[in-house]
Fold these 2 entries.
Entry 1:
Amino acid sequence: MTSPVDDDEAGPPPSDPKATLGRGLNTPSEGSALGNPPAGPGAFTGRVRRRVAGILEPWADRAAAARVRRGEETVQNAHQRHGTATAARPPGPLVWFHAADTAGALPLGGVMLSLAAEFGPTGALVTTRLPGDSGTLVRRLPPWPMVQLAPHARPQAIGRFLDYWRPDVLLWHDGPEMAPLLDAALDRGVAVNLLTSAPDPWLPRRGRWRLRALSKVFLRDTADLAQVRAAGVAAARGVRSGLPGAAAAAPEVDPGERARLAAALEGRPIWIADGVAQEELPMVLHAHEAAARAMPRRVLARALDDECDLDTAAEALARANLAATGEDRLAPGGVAFDVVVLTQGADRAPWLALATVAFLGGSIARHGGRSPMAAAAVGAAVLYGPHVGYWADLYQRLRDAGAARRVTTGRELAQALSTAILPDRAADMAHRAWATLSDGAEAADTIAATLGEQLDAAP
């Protein structure tokens, strides 16, 4: 996610961060002065806060070095907190996305996708105030943004950070804890946009002067819009966008392959078990047998996970008295089958598009599951287990909308499948999934359009 792109103007990141940690970190970089804070009732308080923070910074740096020596913080995190970049800035304009934590950063991925689709490749930086699971951001965000921890809210750390990254546009999805960083961005002429979330702490606590300095305020509902207008923000600056959804794009389906599979299935309804772990095989086959009693011609398309042994799967099918075939042997009027076994490298997209129900495996077993967005985007009702790892928030969002159902045992899977395969129920869950994804996508498009216009207007 941190591609090594050279930036001669800004200079490369430090080659040996540990060599400088704790030595001379209280010396501001050239040009790192933050300038005058925005004028207004809070300006005097801001100047006092910055002066005190600057006095205390040498002691804070020594404390950070001590935490690294004790193993309480990584060298990379300490340098990022200090405002020192550990990745190269991409050339050209830069959009900076800031959130409180990993959970707050994930919905911004949808904005990144929309921005790239509408305006082409754009440099992007993602920062979080709180350290979290970087693996989640790597797996869930698009592949091009740089990911860093935000600097400490101290003048010199903020100065170093802004000197290096030089953002043109900022989308801020955080509370007031990092107000000095936001104020410094405003002071440097960055187009700053606030994305509120429920409940939002900014609106009752921010001064009028700071709200008025924002380019746009993206709001979740009309109640926030009323608060912003009451604070004196021009109506044109408050945009009721809703909250964007996490990055999700419907998988590309080859129409020719889909037509071939549909012809081979001869109108038989299908459900898919994707990424099935070996210990989940008996549960999936039991669920299929239960569903087949209600809809005898239903087909199971089963895609195994990387660790599931094919010979063991074949033995399980034989014990269940289920006829299986491979996807490459499908043809109209061909051999009779109950189950289609997909190879590990098979394209899942046409199968997901044909299926009315998708069980996403590795989630009852402790394998970490997989993203539900591809299945939901093509209209499959989603069934899943409790162990979904990096994608827990997405599953919960679909579940809250009635588009997904959580199961914990083979028996619950069989019961959920027998209900979800009913045409009316499957159609209802698919519609709810579509509505949920569409709401998030519309919000992402609205925000991305504004950021793109601001980029075009940047000097």
Entry 2:
Amino acid sequence: MKDSGPFKLEFPADTAFVGAARAFCTAIADEAGVDAEAREDVKLAVSEASTNAIWSREVSPASGPIRVTIKREADELLVEVEDAGLSVTPEEPDPSSPPAGQHDSVGTARVDLIGALFPGVDVGVTQTGRLRVAFVIKVSERAVR
């Protein structure tokens, strides 16, 4: 892979565009040398993270795109899915979290699934207050392009 990025894709908060996000990430992972099985995991993880960002809009409406960024760092690809339209401050509750006393089984299940595929998944809020899901894909040592 000649260009290490970062590679960025922005799309409307609409599930109709999740397939484009999967294709974007899969193409970059393929070019970087990620094996076929791991590319299938990437598709699923990006789909879940993107859908989670879109779902958060139902809880706390906002405008602005969903942003996917991929960066190459040595033998890893860092994938970040960020809700670029939603902003929270430390004083506000995280809108992706269920109200006190309720359990968000859908959002939690999505993050748990990503974590099962890519241990060390990071879910949080960026310095600019945007909700973010990030995970790392190991690039095969055999993949020298």
